[in-house]
Each structure stands twice: as structure tokens, then as C-alpha cells.
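User: Reviewer 2 asked us to show a designed sequence for the structure in our supplementary figure. I'm pasting the C-alpha cells here. Could you produce the per-position amino acids so we can include them in the response letter?
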């Protein structure tokens, strides 16, 4: 079978994959690349999820790319607008023509003799297999399973005569008008669904096992709105808003970690003021410290407005069993339902489930450290784009992609064919790259597949934008922990390219 050859093969055409392609196009002229995308269009997460009200859970100044401004004033954007933004970015930067849609990446194998990755892809529409050869492989699929979300089995659910839906597989023809809806969960998906469905549903109940910290933000950025009215140039508005929000994100997280009981009082006090007297605070008082799980954000306090209106309610209890007409909880209360939505979370998966091997030996990602949060130790020419858990995903993804561009430019300039991070035994720890402090269910479930982090730089994961910016954008590429080789035949000649990357 004939091989297709590129310098860089990117798996995934979502936010991370398009970022990687744009950084290569801008910073590595002459470098050939292709993007393998299983879906029929760009967008990744923002093309997959179609449930009512889907939106970002980070502000758009930081969730958008550093190299292409987001010019809206909405703090949290709707999913359709985010997908359009990613698509327009790909089109403007000439990336779309490099994307191969409808292809699933099945397996990848690094050959030390060839100094190349061989990647097998499957055209799911025709069943045709394609083989790609690439110097560098980039996993940009995020870290969850697109085929199936986390879906626990509930006692008695086979008796339920209504409709059971997981948000990851939302039916296009689902009509909730006049229906009694129960949303199981208390995370970002649940708190988005409740106010989005409540206006037309008969009633919506959010059934949670335990509460989550929720922060209400204005629907529109007040500072940016004023600046636009004053006719401040849009580019400057974006730069100011982005810098400010990066600092605010970092400051809020740092305060929550350093003074958790103070921040608990602040966060719960803000919720109490929004709820009024009609809804009990016990439904919004978590047992854990702020940022032990991801902080949920609601624009304009829409969830609280909906609860105050009586169109929705919250039940905090455990499910005893499904019944024919709803759900009975441990307290004995039966919640009537025509539609039950299981907003119960994600299943973690790396590289879209692609099998990865080095010289024929299967790669066990959990056995490897992550170098600078980007590359696996002991694995040549492989990048894994994993965003932040405590801030905007894209902030870290952009930094990682900028570093990748610099690394490849450095290798080309010096005639290098492979780069392999090498960790010492003393560098290793058993802590996941997701960290020890976050206790979210999906993180615990995914511990078996996530790479480890080390005890010191460059193996330690700090989840700190300013620190990562120094390490990934500003520090020299040369590093004692990074081994370069010139062993492969047909190495590209040195060029006069600089270690250039767009600002992030």
C-alpha cells in the first residue's frame, strides 16, 4: 500500500489541532503537514455536543486563540459560535485544505530505523485504509472518548417508560416542550441544561449527588463593552481583556488554594445573594474545598434566576431506583419525569483511542512522564496537546503548539531528525498529570491512562500560565533532558529558519 508522506501529522481538527496547524503554517514555512479528523467538519468538541445551551465554561478572551482575536463581548460563548470561530480560523490560515475528514486514526508506530511514524487511518465511510509516514506526530484530540460518555447503570432504569438521554449523544428530534425533565448531575453540563430547557419544559429538576461550587459572571464583559463604546480599537480591547482575564483566572485559583476557607465564604456568600430565600443553600454548599473540583460558571446568574422563578428545582440525594414514571431517591421522594438526562460526565481517552507503539512495542501512556506538559519521555517526536484543568484549555494548548513549532524549527535548522525527552529515575513520581488536588470523578476514572508528572522541572505540571509561558515560549529549546539525534536517512537540510512562534 502506498504511503502518504508529511513532516507533521496532526490527529484531530478541534481547537488544539487547528492551533497546531496554524502555528506550523506561521512558524515553519516549508514544513508539510496534514490533519486527520474523524468527523465531517472542524470543531471537535464543539461539533460533537449539540445539547441545548451548550457553551464554553471559560471566558472567550482566554478560550479563543492568542493569535486570532475573539471580538465578541459575551464572556461565555455558545457552542455554535465557538465552532464557527474554529472553522473561520482554519479557513483564514489555509489549514482546511490540509484536513482529511472522515478518517479515524487507528494505530501509529515509530520506527527507530526509519526515524518516522507510520500511521494507519480508516475512512469510516468506505472502509478504506490509508498509511501515512510522518517525522512528527501530534495528538490533538483532547482527553475524552468521543464515542461514549461516562454512563453509570442505575437500578431499575429498564422499567422507565420515558426517554433516557446522555448529553454527548443528543437526539436531534428530542422535544422537551411541556415535558417533565430530570437532569442527573451538577457539573458544567447540568447547570447549562437546566436554564436552557426550563422556559419550555413543564418543569426541570437537577438531581445531584453532591453540590458544586458555582460562580456567576456577567453575561457580557462590562469593561470591553465600555471600551468598544469609546471606539477603542478592537485589537487593543482583545489584548487588554485577555491579559486581564489570564491574571484574574490565575489569581482566583491561587486564592482558592492558599485561602480555601476564605474563598469558600466568598463563593457561598455570592450564591446566597443570588438565590434569595426560596432555595436552600444546602444544595450549593459542597463538602470539598474550592478548586478541588473545577469551578462551574453561569453567565448572568441564569441558573439562579431559573430556580427563583420556580421553573426548575434542585434535589440533593442519591438515586435508589428508577420507576416507570421517574426516579425514587433514598429519602423516599419520587421525582416524576418524562425525560431523564444523564449529565454524568466523560470517559477519558488519549489520542482518540489510537494504538501507539515504539518499534512495535505498545505504548502504555501511564508509564511515561510528560515533558514540559507536551512530550512523553522515552518517545521520539510525539506531542500530546493537553490543556489546563484550572483555567482555559486553549491557553495551554496554544503554548504547547507554539513550543512544537519552535522545536521543529530548531531541529530543521540543525539537521536533527528526532527529539526524545529522557527522564531519570529520580525524576519520577506516581502523580498523574491531572494533579493530586483535583478530585473530579472523570479525573479519578482516567488515572489509569493519563501520563505521570515528575517531581521537578521539566517534568512537573504546574498548571500556571506564566510559568508555562517561560518554559514553552521563552526558554531555549536545547535542554539536558531532551536528546536529539541525526540517525535517520534522508534528514532534512539545515535552514535559516528561526525558533519563531506567534504570540500566545
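Assistant: Here is a per-position design you can include in the supplement:
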Amino acid at each position: 500500500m502506498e504511503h502518504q508522506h508529511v513532516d507533521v501529522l496532526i490527529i484531530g481538527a478541534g481547537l488544539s489541532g487547528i492551533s497546531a496547524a496554524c502555528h506550523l503554517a506561521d512558524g515553519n514555512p516549508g514544513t508539510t503537514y496534514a490533519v486527520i479528523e474523524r468527523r465531517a467538519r472542524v470543531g471537535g468538541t464543539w461539533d460533537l455536543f449539540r445539547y441545548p445551551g451548550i457553551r464554553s465554561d471559560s471566558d472567550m478572551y482566554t478560550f479563543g486563540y492568542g493569535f486570532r482575536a475573539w471580538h465578541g463581548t459575551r464572556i461565555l460563548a455558545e457552542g455554535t459560535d465557538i465552532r464557527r470561530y474554529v472553522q473561520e480560523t482554519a479557513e483564514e490560515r489555509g489549514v482546511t485544505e490540509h484536513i482529511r475528514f472522515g478518517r479515524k486514526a487507528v494505530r501509529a508506530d515509530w520506527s527507530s530505523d526509519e526515524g518516522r511514524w507510520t500511521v494507519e487511518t480508516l475512512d469510516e465511510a468506505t472502509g478504506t485504509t490509508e498509511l501515512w509516514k510522518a517525522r512528527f506526530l501530534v495528538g490533538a484530540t483532547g482527553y475524552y472518548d468521543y464515542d461514549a460518555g461516562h454512563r453509570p447503570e442505575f437500578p431499575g432504569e429498564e422499567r422507565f417508560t420515558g426517554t433516557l438521554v446522555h448529553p454527548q449523544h443528543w437526539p436531534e428530534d428530542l422535544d422537551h416542550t411541556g415535558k417533565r425533565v430530570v437532569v442527573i448531575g451538577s457539573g458544567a453540563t447540568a447547570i447549562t441544561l437546566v436554564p436552557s430547557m426550563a422556559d419550555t419544559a413543564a418543569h426541570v429538576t437537577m438531581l445531584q449527588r453532591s453540590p458544586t461550587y458555582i460562580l456567576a459572571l456577567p453575561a457580557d464583559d462590562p469593561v470591553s463593552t465600555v471600551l468598544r463604546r469609546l471606539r477603542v480599537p478592537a485589537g487593543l480591547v482583545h489584548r487588554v481583556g485577555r491579559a486581564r482575564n489570564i491574571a484574574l483566572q490565575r489569581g482566583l485559583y491561587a486564592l482558592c488554594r492558599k485561602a480555601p476557607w476564605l474563598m469558600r465564604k466568598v463563593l457561598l456568600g455570592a450564591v446566597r445573594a443570588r438565590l434569595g430565600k426560596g432555595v436552600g443553600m444546602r444544595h450549593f454548599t459542597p463538602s470539598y474545598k474550592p478548586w478541588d473540583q473545577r469551578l462551574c460558571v453561569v453567565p448572568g446568574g441564569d441558573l439562579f434566576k431559573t430556580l427563583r422563578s420556580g421553573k426548575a428545582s434542585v434535589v440533593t440525594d442519591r438515586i435508589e431506583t428508577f420507576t416507570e414514571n421517574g426516579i425514587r431517591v433514598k429519602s423516599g421522594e419520587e421525582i416524576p419525569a418524562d425525560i431523564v438526562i444523564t449529565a454524568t460526565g466523560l470517559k477519558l481517552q488519549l489520542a482518540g483511542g489510537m494504538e501507539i507503539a515504539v518499534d512495535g512495542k505498545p505504548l502504555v501512556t501511564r508509564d511515561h512522564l510528560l515533558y514540559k506538559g507536551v512530550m512523553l519521555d522515552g518517545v521520539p517526536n510525539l506531542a500530546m496537546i493537553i490543556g489546563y484543568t484550572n483555567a482555559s484549555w486553549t491557553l495551554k494548548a496554544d503554548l504547547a503548539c507554539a513550543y512544537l513549532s519552535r522545536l521543529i524549527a530548531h531541529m530543521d535548522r540543525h539537521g536533527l531528525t528526532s527529539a526524545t525527552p529522557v527522564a531519570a529515575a529520580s525524576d519520577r513520581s506516581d502523580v498523574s498529570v491531572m494533579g493530586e488536588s483535583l478530585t473530579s470523578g472523570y479525573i479519578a476514572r482516567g488515572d489509569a491512562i493519563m501520563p505521570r508528572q515528575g517531581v521537578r522541572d521539566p517534568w512537573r505540571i504546574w498548571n500556571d500560565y506564566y510559568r508555562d509561558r517561560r518554559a514553552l515560549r521563552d526558554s531555549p529549546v536545547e535542554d539536558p533532558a531532551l536528546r536529539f539525534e541525526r540517525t535517520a536517512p534522508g534528514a532534512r537540510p539545515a535552514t535559516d529558519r528561526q525558533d519563531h512562534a506567534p504570540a500566545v
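For the response letter, you might also mention the following. The longest strand covers residues 128-139. The radius of gyration is 24 Å.
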